[in-house]
Design goal:
The chain is an alpha/beta fold and about 350 residues long. It has 12 helices and 13 strands. About 40% of the residues lie in helices and about 15% in strands.
């Protein structure tokens, strides 16, 4: 049985959900270990989400922030574990794991797969210089260690091809069998509007606050927490803090509209879940979001200051038509069962 080591620093949110589905659907065929560290959004009972056969190794120096000292210590720990485990495949998730993990596998006979889950150089709010630096780091790391880069959306795949021709597109998907749908009546004069994620720079809480401030008669909910919580000052916003996945689904079922004001994305799992649950989705005009949403067909792509106007113009007929299209799209294009088949093929063949 082949050994697979998943290395993940961003062990929470959509990446966590993605890993749970991927690992639990491949554990019958592989010996699997997860190398990780805890984030504030990591569920306290996270091991209970995984099959009991999955093994875990925590790397405490594996932190979200860039810290040369901690990053070097994490590299030493990860390289040591890879030497001990001798995996056939190392599967890396997100930028920090992608960089440290590929360097740690240099000179080792192991196939490497890398899921960026949103390239840093695709950030919408950074200078061209910073974008060039982030792109250069990805390019150099790809040259140092050959790997298969998996773009989780069409846009991310196109970006990956500029780094390495050894890239493939596997759209993110969700396990729809785990999601219950609740039918609810919609009151256009008092809509329930939400988003999900860490309250940080990426998710652009200031823009979310702007929408709430303009639509004071609506109820807004931010499912999550983070260091920029102070940006959510509008009195009609409720911040729930971090919730277990089951509770997140329950809250999302109570909403009418799902908003993503992100400055960059890969392909958000939360967006796919909201589409499947028949919520009107209004998303920022960035890679990942705009790869999934088609304006006025299965949702809306908005630029700054357009969100509130879109919400004001919605009709019941629009909502019924668009949410049915979104639900159908997830079933046809973003069903995780098909993704697992593709990953298994890569695991077995070691190439694309």
């Amino acid at each position: 049985m082949k050994k697979i080591v998943h290395i993940v620093e961003a062990f929470g949110g959509g990446v966590f959900t993605y890993l749970v589905d991927l690992i639990n659907n491949t554990i019958d065929d592989y010996d699997i270990t997860i190398i990780y560290n805890i984030r504030e959004q990591t569920p306290k009972n996270f091991k209970e989400y995984f099959d009991k056969r999955v093994k875990f190794i925590q790397i405490k120096n594996f932190t979200r922030e860039i810290n040369i000292k901690n990053d070097f210590k994490a590299f030493i720990e990860i390289e040591k574990k890879i030497k001990e485990l001798k995996p056939d495949i190392v599967h890396l998730h997100s930028t920090k794991a992608g960089i440290i993990g590929r360097i740690a596998t240099i000179g080792k006979k192991t196939n490497v797969i890398y899921n960026p889950h949103a390239f840093a150089f695709l950030m919408k709010d950074i200078s061209k210089t910073k974008k060039a630096i982030y792109w250069g780091i990805e390019k150099i790391t790809a040259m140092l260690k050959k790997s298969i880069i998996v773009g989780c959306s069409k846009g991310e795949y196109e970006a990956a091809l500029k780094i390495s021709t050894n890239s493939i597109c596997i759209n993110n998907g969700i396990n729809v069998e785990k999601i219950n749908l609740t039918k609810k009546d919609i009151n256009l004069s008092k809509l329930n509007i939400c988003t999900i994620g860490r309250i940080d720079k990426q998710k652009n809480p200031q823009e979310f606050n702007n929408i709430a401030s303009e639509l004071t008669q609506m109820n807004f909910t931010w499912i999550g927490d983070g260091e920029l919580k102070n940006k959510l000052t509008s009195k009609n916003i409720n911040v729930t803090g971090w919730k277990a996945r089951e509770e997140v689904i329950k809250i999302l079922n109570q909403q009418d509209i799902f908003v993503l004001t992100s400055l960059w994305e890969g392909l958000p799992i939360s967006l796919l879940e909201a589409m499947y649950m028949k919520k009107i989705c209004i998303v920022s005009n960035v890679t990942g979001n705009k790869d999934v949403i088609e304006n006025n067909k299965n949702g809306f792509v908005a630029n700054d200051n357009e969100y509130a106007q879109i919400i004001k113009q919605l009709t019941i007929e629009d909502i019924e038509r668009i949410t049915e299209n979104a639900h159908k799209d997830v079933l046809e294009k973003y069903n995780f069962k098909e993704n697992v088949k593709t990953y298994k093929k890569i695991y077995e063949e070691g190439k694309i």
